[in-house]
TrEMBL record:
Name of protein: JmjC domain-containing protein
MF-aspect GO terms: cis-regulatory region sequence-specific DNA binding
One Pfam family recorded for the sequence: Cupin_8
Gene3D superfamilies xref list: Cupin
Domain of life: Eukaryota
Cellular component aspect of the GO annotation: nucleus
InterPro entries xref list: Cupin_8, JmjC_dom, JMJD6_ArgDemeth/LysHydrox
All copies of domain JmjC, residue ranges: 53-181
Amino acid sequence: ENFMLDLTSSNSFSEHKKSITLREYVDYSLSTEIHPHQLSNETYYLFGQTFTAPWVELLKSYKLPPCQTCTRDLSALAFGIGAKGSGVQWHFHGPGFSETLHGRKHWVLYPPDKKPKYDPDFTPLYWMEYSYPSIDSKPWECTVHQGEMIYFPDMWHHAIVNLDPYTVFVSTFTTEHGVFN
């Protein structure tokens, strides 16, 4: 119950941080639904700040995706929990996989040469409800359900919205383009 979490803001830059206990965050996630007009730099999310010894120990039991570069020494794991409507606004980084362990995550993606128009401080839910209907060039999109995994290519723009009262997931960041086994 006193296990401390470091949360980051849900905007494109994850620039704001705060620490709370795991119990406080689980209670928050189960009782909160993010709404489109909330600012993403004012909503917090457990993701990416899971590199301390307790998290590393927990993630040792995670089965890595089946790719040549998905080894313990060539990849980084990040654990996440998000409330309904939470997610991360448009961003990009190197390649990897994201597996949903509980709940569902809706992904929207554009290739590197098609940068989406968005405000980094608005939530991805806002973008989905107010920007998406009027754009001509729709993104690739899918919903990843419990037990499913998505591969996100190198430098692809993507945003994610969690669809259920809470969503639990693990992302595996690889060091290069993976070649599937």
